[in-house]
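Repro:
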Amino acid sequence: MVKKSVLPATLLAASWVVPSCMPALPNGSTVNAQPPATGTTQGTGVCGSGSWQPGWLEIHHIDAGEGVSTLIVSPVGRTMLIDAGEAEWDQSDGAQVIGAYVRSVLGCARLDYVVISHFHLDHVGFPGYGGIWHLVHQQGFTIGKLLHRDLNRYSGTSSATLSQWRAYLQSDDGRALNPEIATVGESQVQLGEGVFFAFVAVDGNGSLPAGDFASDPAPPDENDYSIAAVLRMGRLDYFTAGDLSGETMVSLQGGYSYHDQETRVAPLVKDVDVYRVSHHGSSYASNSTLLAEIDPEVSIIQVGDDNQDGHPTQSTVDRLLATSALYLTEHGAPSTDLRGGKVVGHVVLRTATGIDYTVNGDAFLASDPWRTDNDGDGYFSEADPDDNSAMVVPALNGGCDGTYQTCP
């Protein structure tokens, strides 16, 4: 969740209209979907002239305050930006930090892939002002392919951010970003030989019904539809899932509800080395079943200082520290005791082998541990003690909401 800003009524009701002052893409046409060769000029600058070195996989968790953004650079220089958010709807502070940082790493303003995990302001920004829109239309970035969830077929809580992105993606400028609906599997992203990337959850993976439920008393929150993905190189496994929900409950503030998606996604993820923590360390994510299944060695929280939603919560920090080393871009809620967690600004994972890797210079060793699932239900025994039945799986955290969830 992000701080809610008051938008003008005209903007809340309006569909996307391309401003006359909006600059065209740098080459004046649709961008090339093929990744550029290292050393070629794309957008502004020379790709491959930044801090990244060929042969290295780098995952940069950018410190943009409440704006979430992650840059992935593969060993052959193919690039992916996951999210580019803002703290306020009419700001571009996050995009300016993100854009400058990406240029420093790549040397250019070219991204092969951009993934929008879900349509909340702190992950995507607001068209016409900040976020991904600002990167393209104000900073000259080009995008080979924009992957996003199906916001037309699956819609829970309404927001100006969601409605404006829906209209923007149908405009000429939006279509120039080569948008494509993400689907479960590995076919849509190729980061080069030796690097596997797959979407493991999109729009609830069939556990949530298609439709527009915005007028319901407590429809599914946008977080429920978050895209989740796994990256693997050698033995190194990395998991990221936007703000994926880990508990079924109706918000105390009213107007929306969460639905546990993590428990059902867990067996699709299996054991990982590094976990980019969902929902900024919210108590409604990173549930016990997920953490017992993925058992990360490193967890990374992207959060802004003085977070108004209390992220990261103490209970989540305690669960993460029980299984992993913890790194944060900023402290978040002042009342949370981070204990052994490290606040380091930009959190950077680097590896050239897929076995030994570093996080901000700290050394770790990736592994494929031998863990058992004797009852064949997809969950390791730590997440679901073997019960001699593949039909008996962990219960959803908070129960199952039969109005929106497919219940066992």
